[in-house]
């Protein structure tokens, strides 16, 4: 039985992982320094350990701490790990920024959830409402082995499948590819565009359109627009008028060089900014 230790087990993400891993096939240890986090864990019947008592004995150490703290925490925890063990982080930002503490004698693995797709249909209302994932709704995950043997990729993926369950598929990619996905694609691009759409909805509400009518009209159109653009409806296309509006809108709203956000130096700056 592999020994797994979660650092930050009582935090926002730590609690999500803990709920899934506490009944898994791994021998678990939990490290949490905040009293509030310790209280949350106690409510699940979980007692905490100190890092110095469990890190050196762990086969896998998961750093479930915010990006802004990860560099500092990694410099404290990783030197205490046993050679040949596996360090897991939950996203690539700190690693891509070059701020993760590195050792040559341990493996590094990153696993991040995709979250349930907008096209993911679940059998119950409760599962359909699991927008984040990791509880009832199925999701995919992306995994990257930064350093280490293939056998450690298999170990890392097995832990990731348990902590993000239910998982329907795991994609093996590189750390650099994961940074293109997040932050570049889903935060820098997608979140920005969607926030602009939300702001536009608020603007027309301020101009007199009833809020409920505006929201329902927008959500319905987003649904069909996604289905058409991402080819969920075979052979479906926008009307000529809609395409003209789309072309005109792009010329007003977006710079011609917007794809620079995917250039390596730009991605590096993004991860430096958020860490």
* Strands in their spatial order, largest beta sheet: 2-1-3-4-5-6-7
Helix percentage range:
40-55%
Structural class by SSE content: alpha/beta
Put simply, the count of helices is 11
Distance between the termini: 34 Å
Give the total of domains.
2
Element-level helix/strand string: EHEHHEHEHEHEHEHHHH
Relative strand content: 5-15%
Question: Could you please describe the fold and organization of this structure?
Answer:
This protein is of the alpha/beta class and 275 residues long. It folds into two domains: 171 residues, Rossmann fold (3-Layer(aba) Sandwich), CATH 3.40.50; 95 residues. The protein has eleven helices and seven strands. It has a seven-stranded mixed sheet, with helices on both faces. Helix 8 packs antiparallel against helix 9. The longest helix has 32 residues. The radius of gyration is 21 Å and the shape is globular.
């Amino acid at each position: 039985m592999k020994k797994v230790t979660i650092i930050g087990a009582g935090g926002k993400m730590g609690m999500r992982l803990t709920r899934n891993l506490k009944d898994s096939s791994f021998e678990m240890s939990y490290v949490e320094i905040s009293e509030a986090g310790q209280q949350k864990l106690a409510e699940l019947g979980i007692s905490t350990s100190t890092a110095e008592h469990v890190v050196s004995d762990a086969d896998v150490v998961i750093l479930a701490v915010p990006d802004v703290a990860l560099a500092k925490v990694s410099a404290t925890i990783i030197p205490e790990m046993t050679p040949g063990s596996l360090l897991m982080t939950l996203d690539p930002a700190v690693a891509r920024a070059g701020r993760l503490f590195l050792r040559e004698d341990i493996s590094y693995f990153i696993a991040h959830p995709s979250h349930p797709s907008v096209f993911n249909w679940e059998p119950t209302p409760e599962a359909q409402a699991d927008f984040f994932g990791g509880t009832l709704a199925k999701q995919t995950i992306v995994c990257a082995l930064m350093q280490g043997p293939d056998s450690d990729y298999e170990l890392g993926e097995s832990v990731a499948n348990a902590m993000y369950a239910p998982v329907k598929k795991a994609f093996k990619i590189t750390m650099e590819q994961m940074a293109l996905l997040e932050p570049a694609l889903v935060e820098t691009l997608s979140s920005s565009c969607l926030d602009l759409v939300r702001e536009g909805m608020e603007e027309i509400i301020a101009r007199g359109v009833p809020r409920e009518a505006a929201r329902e009209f927008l959500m319905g159109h987003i649904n069909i627009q996604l289905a058409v653009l991402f080819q969920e409806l075979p052979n479906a296309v926008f009307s000529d008028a809609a395409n003209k509006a789309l072309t005109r809108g792009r010329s007003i709203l977006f710079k011609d060089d917007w794809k620079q956000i995917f250039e390596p130096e730009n991605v590096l700056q993004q991860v430096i900014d958020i860490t």
